[in-house]
## 1
Amino acid sequence: MSLEARTPLEGYEEYDPQDMQARIDSFTRSLKRRRTVRDFSTKAVDRKIIERAIEAAGTAPSGANHQPWHFVVIEDPTRRTALRRAAESEEQSFYEGKAGSEWLEALAPLGTDASKPFLENAPVVIAVFAQKRGGVTVGQDMKNYYINESCGIACGFMLAALHEAGLVTLTHTPNPMRFLNKLCERPDTEKAYMLIVAGHPDSDATVPEHALIKKSLSDISDWI
């Protein structure tokens, strides 16, 4: 394929203004129901649902279309236990002062702490890795660009897809996360980016009232 090769746009659907408004209203209402949850049911999730969510994440735009991400679904109980222990060890240092007083003060209304039982108990835990090198096809060894931005968008797509499937999610970023490379058998050219926990909410799941505070449209946008 030449560098200048082009192909007609396919799959685009244009809607009349009324349908456009209805579709965006429905999508926004749905996302407004999305909540970060820490209390998960042990109810299993069909593997096909997670595979489709990963596929959705893989459609995200990326620097030079290199798609600098890799998703590892951690199912093995032994690895889950090791994951929880390693993450809680890092989190213990975080909450004992590594984070700094301002950060801990910001987290206080959410009631989070070093305990992460969901890493063992939730039905789905996905480790997202950002690839420093790669390319548009598997096996290439080129520098990747806009890695953090690309992976962030992909994770957003995945969260939206999992929500659309009727699951609740949690994003977790233990710092540092270097232990995940060994645990997930990923190369040094990749950097652990995020853990995405998903499943059905426990019957007595709660969310902090603080998390329900969302800035208004006028707070987060300007038209100039």
## 2
Amino acid sequence: MDVTRGVYSEPEETLLTTRALNYLSAGPADVVDLIGHICSLPGAPRIVAEHMAHAMFAGRPQFARAADGRWMLADTATKPYPESAGRSRTPAGASDALHALSYVVVDTETTGGSHWLSDKITEIAAVVVRNGEIVEVFETLVNPQRPIPPVVSRLTNITWDMVKDAPTFDRVVPDLMRVLEGNVFVAHNANFDWRFITSEISRTTGRQLRGRRLCTVKMARKVLPQLSRRSLDHVARFYGVEIRNRHRAGGDALATAKCLVRMLSDLADRGCGTWGDLQTVLRAPAGRRRKRRPSGMPMPVTRDTTA
């Protein structure tokens, strides 16, 4: 499986890998020039440069070798090369057919809305969609190792008694990564779930999660402009999707997955068939708005951000 078509994990960035990413953003480079730039070793022997590059980029899927032996960025779906020498480069992966990609639809319940402070995940679900079908459902409660505020418990129906004997996130990570890797990350208000999950993965494993993401709220704005709201309740109602166990990770993730399948089908009917087509649709300017939209930033979980 080509994990770079979806999400993948890698060791956290160092100063040298950050410099390599910046240098290769302009296009492929010879290994001697690359190592000379990022390590301040101009003219290093080729064999030395090769060994250094392999050691530095091992386990980092965003680095790859071109057919001519030069190093390049593999994850160019979200890091397109700029125009160079008067020619526009097409991002790698833009021609991937949407129906050929696999997706993992994620939902998390948390103790609050501040991943950067002390809030933690209390439940997580990941639903794998392949060829328009749900093929796997991963769901588990998580011990957040901190109290759950009563107002959050009233919204999610998740109490401390339910999670006190549940696995902590570090024990959940191996199974979660198996489900995530190689699949496009999808969620309703994706930034919220992505930030919590990547923060917890970094904290417990020292690795970073990278790769393709889709937000079904943003998709619904383009696919269903006639809806007054693009909350999960409104989108599911439009498609006739029943949401069981609302505000629980499994119920919301399953409903979102079913809505994703329907929206991808609608996009295909409109001639949007590739990853590049979809990015063009999502980047298209919005029509004239009749009223101001709420902020797109994640809201505290004490407020229902999807209803």
## 3
Amino acid sequence: MTRLVTVAHGTRSAEGNAVARALTGAAGTRLGMPWVASYVELCDPSYSSVMASGVPSVVVPLLLSTGHHVRHDLGGGRALGPDPLLAVAQVARLVSAGAEPGQPVVMVAAGSTEPLATRDQMLAAAYLSEQWGGPVRLATLSGVGRRPYDVVTPDDVVSPYLLAPGHFADRCRAESSAAAVVADVIGAHPAVADLVVSRVDDALAGRRSARRCACRAL
């Protein structure tokens, strides 16, 4: 049976790594598929060790932008973000943190030097602005872009464009201390599980279509 394999970055935070397992388990259960959550670094099992088994798999990266890990460690493919479902989860976290509708938002991403990652983060900010119904500015913790301490004001609320707790989440909160509200990370929100399920459905549909084309060619 084909299994679901997700790939998260990995962190030294046990709570952070648990987010990937929770999302993968929720999606795998809904799909009726066996599942494995794997990691690029800092946590086991590693993606390379999971894929070395040769078990037929659908791989869904839990990485929010097309950065170094997607392009090099995973050999290309599609990052989890940007997507409107991630913005749905971000809005839920903002509301839970006490943000008021219409307050200006600073979306804080991990950042990257990859141009495609910058493109992805800008689109993610646009999705969040549409879902939130108000202005969203972008800050990054590394790579290209302005840092939160240069962008965030006391009138702003901060939405971390980060999937799980860990080093970047801690930095986001520290560097956004001027904000009125700093929301929680995206986490294992049901909308994110919906997105993983959608990516698996798309991948399986693509495989079925490819098999039909191959049979017609014969």
